[in-house]
Amino acid sequence: MLQIPNHFNQSKVSEVYRINYQTLANDARNYAKVNSIKPGAIDKVKVALMPIDCQNTFCIPNFELFVGGRTGTGAVDDNVSLCKFIYQNLDKISSINPTLDTHLSMQIFHEVFWINERGEHPSSMTMISFDDIKCGKWKVNPEIAYSVLHGNYMALQAHALHYSKKLTDGGKYLLTIWPYHAMLGGIGHCLVSALEEAIFFHSIAKRSQTNFQIKGGNPLTENYSIFKPEVLDTANGQVIAQKNSKFLETLLNNDIVIIAGQAKSHCVAWTIEDLLTEILAKDPSLAKKVYLLENCTSPVVVPGIIDFTDMANDVFKKFSNAGMHIVNSNVAIEDWPGVNF
Which bin fits 129, alpha (ψ -120 to 50), beta or left (φ > 0)? Predict the structure, then answer.
């Protein structure tokens, strides 16, 4: 494993700070020269890393949806491990493909979208079911109809019923009201500074353009997975979203696909679930090329309210049973099962 560059300071992984890109680029070029690092494009074994939603909003304490896990420091610890992993295996990682959860204020999972008969908005972490909407416990806020659907309130209300039923029928989570988070243009939307630093360093040292993937901006559907939103159509069958088929194909063209990020119980779980669905439909043996960094991801835990740890662990067992590998970032890639450089 390569030596971690001197600029990395793990005590700052929980902080937001400015990166001096020019200085870092100079250091990355020197690092590549000293360590004889070849461009990612000519790697014989193509290795893709996909860090899922490693953004301030999920990974920095006191931000909107910090993923603390049961330890309370989950996402910070995960990113320390992930940064070290990138630096120590930089010569082997051909490409990095970070996903970015990206939201606006008026979306179906934010409080302003909904009101009850008293005109009150639901509090964060409220679960809204099909029956809640059908009986009128919660309804779409008519004041957002113009901004979201050109004033067509009846169509929005019909979509709400259709949407909640599709979630139930598909075995998905109930519609969850999340705090405003990962807001486009806001500091919470940004990658964790230390991880951005590592990813930029990689892009220069490996001469490999970072392949950012954006998700979550559609006001009419949730988008836990980078590969597709939770619901793809409206009540009248109008298509509102599509699968990210191009990225799926790009990712599966690699020899090794490594996945980490936040949160293990939500965006990570659903992304891997969608990836597995595509793999099973195409060729089940492809699951063997997927590696899950178990110490670089944590589940959503809200003490005293909800704990998704057991559910997340059960889902990862399912992925393992399907042929995917659960590995530790402290072990060099070349020492993982099934890897042959």
Answer: beta
Whether the predicted pLDDT of 172 surpasses 90? no
β-strands 325-327, 290-298: how paired?
parallel
- Compute the distance between CA of residue 153 and CA of residue 158 in angstroms, rounded to an integer: 9
121 contacts: CB under 8 Å, gap ≥ 6: 111, 112, 114, 115, 141
DSSP 46: -
Secondary element (H or E) of residue 292:
strand 290-298
Domain span(s) for CATH 3.40.50.850 in the chain: 10-100+191-335
Report the DSSP pairing between strands 47-52 and 256-262.
Answer: parallel
Q: Of 200, 254, 206, nearest to 91 (Cα)?
A: 206
> For the segment 11-28, what is each residue's pLDDT rounded down to a tens digit?
999 999 999 999 999 999
Torsion angles phi and psi, residue 240, rounded to 5 = -110, -15
Contacts of 97 (CB under 8 A, 6+ apart): 48, 49, 50, 51, 210, 211, 212, 213, 247, 250, 251
What's the pTM value of the predicted model, to 2 decimals?
Answer: 0.95
Pairing of strands 256-262, 290-298: parallel
Instruction: Compute the distance between CA of residue 309 and CA of residue 332 in angstroms, rounded to an integer.
Output: 27
Domain at 10-100+191-335: CATH architecture: 3-Layer(aba) Sandwich (3.40)
Query: Residue range 94-108: average pLDDT?
Result: 98
